[in-house]
Write a structure and sequence with these properties.
This protein has helices at residues 11-23, 34-43, 60-69, 85-93, 106-120, 154-164, 173-181, 189-203; strands at residues 3-7, 27-31, 48-52, 76-80, 98-101, 129-131, 134-137, 142-145, 148-150, 170-171, 213-216, 220-223. It is α/β, with parallel strands linked by helices and 225 residues long. A five-stranded parallel β-sheet has the order 2-1-3-4-5, with helices on both faces. A hairpin with a 2-residue loop joins strand 8 (142-145) and strand 9 (148-150). The radius of gyration is 18 Å and the shape is globular. It binds calcium ion. Calcium ion binds next to loops.
Amino acid sequence: MALILIVEDEPGLRLTLTDRLKAEGYVVETRDDGIAGLDAARAHGYDLILLDVMLPGMDGFRVCQTLREEDVDTPIIMLTARGNVGDRITGLKSGADDYLPKPFHMQELLLRMEAILRRTKKEALAQNVRFGAIEIDAKAALVRRGGAEVTLSAKEYQLMRYLVQRPGEVVNRDTLLREVWGYNATPNTRTVDVHMTWLRQKLENDPASPAHFVTVRGMGYRFDG
Ligand code: CA
């Protein structure tokens, strides 16, 4: 159920990684240059970032270093064709958690990702969750409604996950913005409301009168299972 950002400019590898990670049950977003990757990483609460080193716009070392300077502590695995020791050290010094030279075996990448996620994971759903007609399959990162798969965007998924993990707890918009959209988030709290509207349209029987993703006036939102 982890959300992964892939920053990779080579289309073939980006596609291969995306397909494989989705098949493994990850939710995946991609960017194809350093600046867009930095923007995405600083504004969203990803669980892990796969970051190429040689990127147009801004190289992976700078992206990583900038994120760490801004206190974005999302785990980062750097990917590069340059496998020498100097680069490995530069990568780790720039704040990366791991470093994998290309070409790599997909299985090795998956194992390293799992190891890092195990170490850092705070937010994964431990088990399947059911409410109303909705079933969240924790292992497969799938949401079903009356048995049919529901497609959620990465943000909708994260918003749902954050609230579902805190049943009965009122969470205010600023907290959601910080926890779901991340540090230095540019969107304002209106963004939270818009995504909540979309989430309700997909998960509530009556989106205008939600039974599970409830507005608490003047305070925020609450999930009722
Ligand atoms: Ca590259």
